[in-house]
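Here comes a specimen:
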Amino acid sequence: MIVLRSLLFNVAFFALTALVAVAAVPLLLAPRGAMLWVMRVWARGVIALLRLICGVTLDLRGMEHIPQGACVLACKHQSAFDTIVWLALLPDAAYVLKKELLAIPLYGWHARRVGMIPVDRSGGGPALRGMLRKAQAALESGRQVVIFPEGTRTAPGERVRYQPGVVAIAGASDAPVIPVATDSGRVWGRRAFHKRPGVIRISVLPPLPPRLPRARLLPALETAIETETDRLLAESPRPVDKTVG
């Protein structure tokens, strides 16, 4: 049953993605908000497909910690789901993502149009400064910057060294830095075909103390995210459905 559901979801996911990507091409000439609206609709559609086809529900915790305006969300990254859900949950998400993704036809055009923030991982200092300028501009315009400080997806229970990009962004802005934990990987695994029925928990933690010294910010962020992620993974699954609307 899981295999059949996963197959149906993947077919529906790629069909929806292709349809939206092609239909949105004319909006490349429209105001940025029009493309952002389409991407939000797409993300909510993917979440609905997960619920209806695969029996995946959401448990959202601590959303009250996200302010109305600019902030930096430093998110645990276990699944491709993590790169989708914030488009649905935030009013104006600006993801920090690999530069190579902007070269993908259609997707890259749309991501560039809404102002996603590319970073060249092999570009050294100049690339980091370019990413930082774009992140600052996004925050100054009141957007929510979403960054995955691990820099890659990790399996549940796996840990990797956190990357310093989030520290640079935090140091250049007064926007609050908000740790976010999740256990999405046990439902939608890294590069996994199977989408298992169950609950994806997202736990938004209180912002880190303001003006935290750089040397303390990354360890504090990692401790907060990993401790809460371990706690989520230790919970037994329970049916919760916080529909994203």
Notes: The longest helix spans residues 32-54. The helical segments are 2-23, 32-54, 82-89, 107-113, 124-140, 165-171, 214-234. The chain has one domain: 2-234.
